[in-house]
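User: Here's a structure from my thesis project, written as structure tokens. My advisor, Dr. K., wants to see whether a designed sequence matches the one we expressed. Can you design one independently, without my sequence as a hint?
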């Protein structure tokens, strides 16, 4: 009975890890695109390195003229004046 119950927990854990993996790919692609490097490097680092790859894009400097420098990290963040 406990073997069956533990196999269900493994399935739930696998689902959570899958969602974390896909979420880190989305965050990595978003951050690298906003910083002017395109979506593909961030997507690749998010898929290959998971959370570490997505967080690494927070420390990569933004290119001049990128959306990160012009508008800010989020599109709804506009400077007044």
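Assistant: Designed independently from the structure alone:
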């Amino acid at each position: 009975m406990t073997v069956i119950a533990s196999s269900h927990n493994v399935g739930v854990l696998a689902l959570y890890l899958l969602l974390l993996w896909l979420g880190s790919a989305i965050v990595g692609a978003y951050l690298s695109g906003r910083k002017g490097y395109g979506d593909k490097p961030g997507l690749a680092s998010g898929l290959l390195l998971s959370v570490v790859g997505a967080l690494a894009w927070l420390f990569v400097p933004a290119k001049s003229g990128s959306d990160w420098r012009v508008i800010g990290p989020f599109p709804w963040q506009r400077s007044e004046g």
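When you compare it with your expressed construct, this may help: Residues 20-70 form one domain.
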